[in-house]
Write a structure and sequence with these properties.
Helix 2 (50-69) packs across helix 3 and helix 2 (50-69) runs parallel beside helix 4 (116-132). Helix content is 50%, strand content 8%. The protein has helices spanning 12-28, 50-69, 79-91, 116-132, 144-153, and strands at 94-99, 102-108. It starts with 11 loop residues before the first helix and ends with a helix.
Length: 154
Amino acid sequence: MTQGEYILFRSKQELEQRQQHLIDKLSDWDFNVPLAVKLLPYDPENPRSISQNALFHKWCREIVKGMQKKGFSVTEGDPAEAWKMWLKKRFLGCDDYRISKTQIQGQVKRTSNLSKGDMCFFMDQCYHWATEQGIRLTIPAESEYAELKTKQER
């Protein structure tokens, strides 16, 4: 958690759903370094950036290499695209649509609809998942993701 973590609450229901995660994170802190919690209003007019998107795509390519080393190879289609869809499905979920009588189910959500904060949270989830898999993802110091993480730590 050295890079900080972003947790978005859109409602009291989400607060109830995520409070245990927040409590666990606070309880796991070692306090050798003081912990600061900063509450900020969410700005929905702040869409995810091209920089964030580019870094996420880079991470997908790094995940391909890391998972191939672990024996998980994509056998059909573009491997980076497959892992991108898998990560989005796992952490963002899917939407269902209806056009007249036609039901279209399980469409993976798009990151282009996320705010910078939501994209940062999604990327945090991907980063932590990859770390749990033993995959070290690149975070360029000059990237917008790194800048947002630094701002969160202040």
